[in-house]
């Protein structure tokens, strides 16, 4: 057996917690799998044995062992992912919604996403934007100005 830099030696408390964790309740598949990796590593199983038993890559086993040694039981959880920043501030969102709920421009019966985009740029609400963030904003607020007069449901 090769000497590993990150050897998993579970404390009694951690072992009890993980055994309880895998034995009951609804769990995320990733967390469940990571708990089993730690339990099997603690029993002295090799990365190859663990990867074959759990049908994961050896690199996954390696990463979880490393994370446990460095972070403790937090290794079971995914780290937060930042995601893409919002394209519009809440003030900009409110202004675009107000436009969508107003009367359509002269010569048009309804607002389209492209018209809303152009109007938001023209009014200086945003410097530049595509129609997608506007579509997502309107969908979030259940507004469909291209389908309903004035963008609001007449229910």
Q: Give the amount of beta strand, in percent.
A: under 5%
User: Quick one: biggest sheet?
Assistant: none
Find the count of extended strands (DSSP E, 2+ residues): 0
How would you describe the shape?
rod-shaped
- Would you identify the regions where 5 or more consecutive residues have pLDDT less than 50? none
Share in helix: 40-55%
The Cα radius of gyration reads 27 Å
Run of helices and strands: HHHHHHH
Number of domains: 2
Structural class estimated from helices and strands: mainly alpha
The count of helical stretches stands at 7
Alpha carbon gap, first and last residue = 71 Å
Task: Kindly describe this structure.
The structure is a single chain. This protein is mainly alpha-helical and 155 residues long. The chain folds into two domains: 12-76; 90-151. It has seven helices and no strands. The chain has helices spanning 12-23, 29-42, 47-54, 58-71, 90-101, 113-122, 131-140. The model has no long low-confidence stretch (mean pLDDT 86).
